[in-house]
């Protein structure tokens, strides 16, 4: 499979959940180190987010990396250098994003990493960490999320956007905290 075929297969990859893999944190650490080695002056902090960051959580086997920068202007300035560092993205998709820039790494037709470049300590930065930490701290809540994800993956196997959007109410509920 050539690079173009691998990329197209990764783009079209169905929503498939895998059982938690204890190697995911090490894969994050390796990518974090790789990013900080290249962008040490630009990246304020790099965090592991998403379901692969929650021990025991089934997840799409894609490491979600959140990189904090000083401003969206910095995120935009990093756009081409990140592409030169092994990531790909859709310029059209990023053009509609106001609070982040999104990139993907892939290998052998599978997504391996998603990189979310956001304003450090901004609203999106805080929300993603609060959500991750809430699920890490509450196994019952994490189990509810795991069941929802399984249901949604079965319902939207070929529509990543629909799968992601269908999780929004649960995420909003968790972010609202105890009532």
Automatic annotation (TrEMBL):
State the SUPFAM superfamilies in the record: Nucleotidyltransferase
Report the InterPro entries cross-referenced here.
GrpB/CoaE, NT_sf
Q: Tell me the domain of life.
A: Bacteria
Pfam families, from UniProt? GrpB (PF04229)
Q: Which Gene3D superfamilies match?
A: Beta Polymerase, domain 2
Protein name according to UniProt = GrpB family protein
Source organism (scientific name)? Billgrantia kenyensis
């Amino acid at each position: 499979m050539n690079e173009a075929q691998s990329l197209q297969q990764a783009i079209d990859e169905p929503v498939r959940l895998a059982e938690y893999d204890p190697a995911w944190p090490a894969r994050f650490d390796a990518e974090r180190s790789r990013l900080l080695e290249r962008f040490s002056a630009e990246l304020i902090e790099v965090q592991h987010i998403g379901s692969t960051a929650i021990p025991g959580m089934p997840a799409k086997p894609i490491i979600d990396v959140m990189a904090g920068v000083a401003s969206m202007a910095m995120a935009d300035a990093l756009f081409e250098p990140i592409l030169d560092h092994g990531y790909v993205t859709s310029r059209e998709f990023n053009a509609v994003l106001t609070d982040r820039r999104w990139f993907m790494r892939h290998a052998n037709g599978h997504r391996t990493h998603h990189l979310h470049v956001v304003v450090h300590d901004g609203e999106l930065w805080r929300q993603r960490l609060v959500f991750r930490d809430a699920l890490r701290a509450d196994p019952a809540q994490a189990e509810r999320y795991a069941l929802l994800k399984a249901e949604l993956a079965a319902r939207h196997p070929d529509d990543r956007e629909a799968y992601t959007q269908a999780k929004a109410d649960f995420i909003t509920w968790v972010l609202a905290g105890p009532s």
